[in-house]
Automatic annotation (TrEMBL):
Keywords: Methyltransferase, S-adenosyl-L-methionine, Transferase, tRNA processing. It is an enzyme of class 2 (transferase). The active site is at residues 319, 353. It catalyses: uridine(54) in tRNA + S-adenosyl-L-methionine = 5-methyluridine(54) in tRNA + S-adenosyl-L-homocysteine + H(+); uridine(341) in tmRNA + S-adenosyl-L-methionine = 5-methyluridine(341) in tmRNA + S-adenosyl-L-homocysteine + H(+). Its EC number is 2.1.1.35. This is tRNA/tmRNA (uracil-C(5))-methyltransferase. It comes from the Bacteria. S-adenosyl-L-methionine binds at residues 183, 211, 216, 232, 294. Gene3D superfamilies: 2.40.50.1070, Vaccinia Virus protein VP39. The keyword Transferase applies. CDD domains: AdoMet_MTases.
Length: 363
């Protein structure tokens, strides 16, 4: 009997194949998810009802006009460690007024190897009694704990977790901060990283990466190139990427704090950026033959697309098939798709993560 997940995955595959057939792409490689316990993050509202409180999520009424509160006892799509902690944590909070008073949300962030970070979000200021109770709770449950209220943040333990992902038999350690972007499905993320490394393996020179985030792809891809220049605008992501590079003892990566648009200007010689000089980066030192992009859902702007078309090889990871489709209409004027993949990061939703490798068409 075909499971609901397998049926939905088959529908995603058919949709992507039909949407992208105009580009004459090679057969689609499909990387499925586990059907349960795949999410490393979970966020819940805390619903107060008389003397009780519980984890809650919302769904729309049939007429779409109201939100209906759904009590959550377990969350099967979340990692086992989150499901194990949920009732234990809630019991401790219920039994302590200092922890439960005006508690609004609870966020969980875990790793494949046991790190756990819990964020408690409040609609009140947090006093000395709360601090004492929170410190005890973090120690008792052996978790990293963050308390947030308007304008304030308190940390017990660390404000990050350390994830370990394995690519080509090598383990990579990643610092993942609370409230920063990380791939929610760690096992499928490993598949994405392995696919990217395998797709680009061969005789390469230097890699340019735009939108590098915390270096998720940067680290394993660096094994396939002489040098890597990665760009990212967010300061917190740049700091995380630099920490991850150092922690994993990788010496051929430099990170520049630039947006994709700013790098395009620097690459064309239209502007000079002090941030490149401060990072000891000279673009003339690189012989780029590959560009890698993992952009936000909005896709890539016209100037950056024009920049990408100058590279012999383009490796593109997309979280939005529609913007990928739009971008490929431009990129396929100069390049052809030689590998095409679907990664089911988000089971039971319509969202799809895709990967394409393009090579420049020679005339």
């Amino acid at each position: 009997m075909t499971s609901a997940y397998q049926q939905q995955l088959a529908e995603k595959v058919e949709r992507i194949q039909q949407q992208f057939q105009v580009f004459q792409a090679p057969p689609l490689q499909v990387f499925p998810s586990a059907e349960q316990n795949f999410r490393m993050r979970a966020e819940f509202r805390i619903w107060h009802q008389e003397d009780d409180l519980f984890y809650a999520m919302f769904e729309r009424s049939p007429d779409q006009k109201q939100k209906i509160v759904q009590r959550i006892e377990q969350f099967p799509i979340a990692h086992q460690s989150i499901n194990q902690l949920m009732p234990i944590l809630l019991t401790e909070i219920k039994n302590n007024l200092h922890l439960s008073k005006r508690l609004f949300e609870i966020h969980f962030l875990c790793t494949l190897h046991g790190d756990m970070l819990v964020s408690l979000i409040y609609h009140r200021q947090l006093d000395a009694d709360w601090h004492s109770a929170a410190a005890t709770l973090a120690q008792q449950l052996n978790i990293n704990l963050i308390g947030r209220c308007r304008g304030e943040k308190y940390v017990f333990g660390e404000q990050f977790v350390l994830e370990q992902l394995t690519v080509s038999a090598r383990d990579y350690c990643y610092k993942q901060y609370e409230n920063s972007f990380t791939q929610p499905n760690a096992v499928v993320c490993q598949s994405m990283l392995q696919w990217a490394v395998d797709a680009i393996a061969g005789d390469n020179q230097d890699l340019l990466e735009l939108y590098c985030g915390n270096g998720n792809f940067t680290l394993p891809l660096s094994t396939q190139f002489n040098k890597v220049l990665a760009t990212e605008l967010a300061k917190s992501s740049v700091q995380a990427a630099q920490w991850n590079i150092a922690r994993n003892h990788i010496e051929n990566i430099k990170v520049a704090r630039l947006s994709a648009e700013e790098f395009s200007q620097a690459f064309r010689g239209e502007r000079q950026f002090r941030r490149l000089q401060e990072a000891d980066i000279a673009l003339a030192d690189y012989q780029f033959d590959t560009i890698f992009v993992d952009p936000p859902r909005a896709g890539i702007d016209a100037d950056t697309l024009a920049l990408m078309q100058q590279f012999p090889k383009i490796l593109y990871i997309s979280c939005n098939p529609d913007t990928l489709y739009d971008n490929l209409q431009q990129l396929c004027k100069t390049h052809k798709i030689v590998q095409f993949a679907l990664f089911d990061q988000f089971p039971y939703t319509h969202h799809v993560e895709s990967g394409v490798l393009l090579e420049k068409v020679t005339t």
